[in-house]
Amino acid sequence: MKKIVVMNGSLEETEVEEAEVVEIKPEGELKLVDLPGVGAATAEKLDGAGYGDLISIAVASPGELVEVAGMTEVTARKIIKAARDSLNMGFQTGEELLVKRQNIVKISSGCNAIDTLLGGGYETGAIYECFGEFGSGKTQIGHSLAVQQFKKNPEGITVYIDTENTFRPERIEQFAVGAGLDPTAALRSIRVARAFNSDHQMLLAEKVDELITKQNLKVKLVVVDSLTAHFRAEFVGRGTLAERQQKLNKHLHLLLRIADKHNLCVYVTNQVMSKPDQFFGDPTTAIGGHIVAHASTYRVYLRKGKKGSRVAKLVDSPSLPEQEVAFIVTQGSLLDFA
Fold first, then answer.
1. Could you list the residue range(s) of the whole structural domain that residue 49 is in?
2. Are 64 and 57 in contact (CB under 8 A)?
3. Can you spell out the DSSP letters for 82-101?
């Protein structure tokens, strides 16, 4: 018998025992329903949960798919393996990775000193954690970044997840005027959502992918201000520490996946606490412990300096040295402090 194979629109014949028609689709045309074990109903569940394409399936864990689609772990592993095989996800040479990193875009903070500290600005595909006490400038940098993102790419969108009711459109207008931009247009480039608890915050982060894939918005910057406020308030005591850290870890890995998948920058602010048992040096430490520290690509510590200035210290980076710079916050911009 003959087996008729349809490949890229052309017909080919091979000898087999029974006659059947098989369609082999190119990699770029594969959909969720083409994966083994995924029917229309399962595909709809996955899509509704934010797993609407092959790359999101390929980087997911079996537990995540089991939770959102109600499938068995064995089926989830088969689906993930098929997605990874279709995308040819494997090792890359250092040269290939260097070429890929040429697609990275750097967004200015609006302050030359901070940009120099970070090697030219806030790069896409990474998470930046900015931690410090109240009034150290964390939120002001977030506002300035949103305006500078619009200045660099007028079609780009900033998603601002506000957990502490600190977003002020008036500050966006002031920073826009300081940068020589139309304040109204700058405000239109920002999508703001107020998160009322940690679950809502995590849900809003998941919806960023939906804004990009379903609403075709060109999201280039995600600001979470602040990352740990709700987690710190809801999980009190040592008994809840493990659950809090697990949820934080999941939240941060989702943000990192979004940053890498869509080549966007994630800027998160973080609260701090004082170590009562530390008698020498700065007792200030960031909330979230090692979970937040390891998940962040770059970590910047902000503190108040002399004469109303602020000091930004780069404490962790995969390629840049540890150093610090001083800046001041004015009505319309962030300026170097001489």
1. 2-87
2. no
3. HHHHHHT-----HHHHHHHG
Reading the block at residue 199, the tokens are: 């679950």
Q: Is residue 222 part of a domain?
A: yes
In our burial notation (b when 16+ CB lie closer than 10 A, e otherwise), range 78-105 reads bbbebbbebbeeeeeeeeeeeeeeeeeb
The predicted-structure confidence for 270-298, as pLDDT tens digits, reads as follows 999 887 776 677 778 999 999 999 999 99
User: Is the same domain home to 23 and 115?
Assistant: no
Q: Average pLDDT, stretch 180-198?
A: 97
SS3 state of residue 292: helix
Per-residue pLDDT, 302: 97
What are residue 281's phi and psi, to 5 degrees? 80, -175
CATH of the domain at 180: 3.40.50.300
Answer yes or no: is 95 within a domain: no
Q: How far apart are the first and last CA of the chain?
A: 84
Could you tell me if 168 and 295 lie in one domain? yes
Q: Which residues contact 319 (CB under 8 A, 6 or more apart)?
A: 119
Q: Please give the Cα distance from 148 to 266 (Å, whole number).
A: 14
How far apart are the C-alpha atoms of 111 and 144, rounded to whole Å? Answer: 9
Number of residues in the chain? 338
Q: How far apart are CA 53 and CA 233, in angstroms?
A: 35
